[in-house]
Amino acid sequence: MVQLLKGKVEIIDLGGATPTITTTSSESSNDGGEGVSGDDDIIPSSMPSPQQFHDQYIKYRKPVIIKNYLKYATHNDWKVVKQEWQLGICEHLNDQDEICLEMKKREFEMTEYWKKRFGHLDVFISELRENGLSHPPNYERKMNFANVIDHLRIQEETKQAVNSKWLYVQQVPTSDLIGITNDYSIPNLFDASPYSILGANTFFLGTTNTRTTLHYDRPLVDNLFLQIYGEKIWKLYEPQEGVNFYSFGFDTKYSHVSQIPEIDQVDAEKFPLFQKAQLLCEFILQPGDLVYLPKGYWHHVQHASMSVSLNFWYY
User: Fold this and answer.
1) Domain boundary assignment for the chain
2) CA-to-CA distance for 246 and 256, rounded, in angstroms?
3) How would you label 225-237 residue by residue, b for 16+ Cβ within 10 Å and e otherwise?
4) What is the bridge-based pairing of β-strands 222-229 and 290-293?
5) Three-state secondary structure readout of 8-65
6) Residue range 158-186, pLDDT digits in tens
């Protein structure tokens, strides 16, 4: 279930009878301030229809997090993803050591599932900096998927690059993983949006501390991002904050990416405007949660664990 760390964003909670929203005080600062509890933005705990989703969120380009989306959809026979994809949910366990052992077991089972299912395929993956940062220039290379899984297992266990290589299965088109689209259904939230069509559907698999530097999605697209396994920490900024982010020039293919490598360790002399940027929110996306990211929103994403995600881009 999603955990809001800083800032303010609407959350639709499908996990219980009473939704809860965590917000912050209205005091503005670059880091968003300290999180406090509040009830001024409580959202009804029912799944919005496609028309409601369009009228309330897509139309106004308003981000929203749907907590427990996967659990709700599965219980309502939407068959969003196959059972083998849902190994990350251990809510029946209470003891921390038991959870840790169970997660390691499930992590192995999950990666073994991918290895058996797609190990015969060659896919393009990203080779990042040795510290796990995805920041230009990144390098793409084609690798056998079974070898990628073996590499990621060691990378996750050691929490460091393997043979000086930090790999990330980043935005792999699902069309490259032949048959994977039979494992899940496309969310219906955009079905009532008259000007939106599904443009791309991609798959992510990465390890703890893999980080994607501050960027917005290009071309300008709406993004439905579904967390399947593990956790990701998101930092979200509104489009107008881009003037403070020192994006690469429009004469490059990275004009949607900030030149600032690590936003938690910003060189204030080199990037002084960043201090003016206002963080909209910071949250942890957990297994089964979905976030709607409207066009142009800047975001920084960090893996808090090994992680599997799907996203759906709408033009």
Assistant:
1) 3-314
2) 10
3) bbbbbbbbbbbbb
4) antiparallel
5) CCEEEECCCCCCCEEEECCCCCCCCCCEEEECCCCCCCCCCCHHHHHHHHHCCCCCEE
6) 999 999 999 999 999 999 998 888 888 88
Residues 80, 92: Cα–Cα separation, whole Å: 21
pLDDT at 19: 38
Q: Is the pLDDT of residue 252 over 80?
A: yes
Structure tokens at 89: 């949910």
Q: Is 59 exposed, middle or buried (0-12, 13-18, 19+ CB in 10 A)?
A: exposed
Beta-carbon count within 10 A of 162 CB: 17
Rounded Cα–Cα distance for residues 23 and 36 (Å): 6
Q: % helix / strand / coil in the chain, to the nearest 5?
A: 25, 30, 45
- Rg over CA atoms, the chain: 19
- Give the CATH number of domain 3-314: 2.60.120.650
pLDDT on residue 84: 60
Which burial class, exposed, middle or buried, applies to 136 when counting CB atoms under 10 A from its CB (0-12, 13-18, 19+)? middle
Q: Which H or E run contains 69?
A: helix 69-75
Task: Specify the pTM.
Answer: 0.87
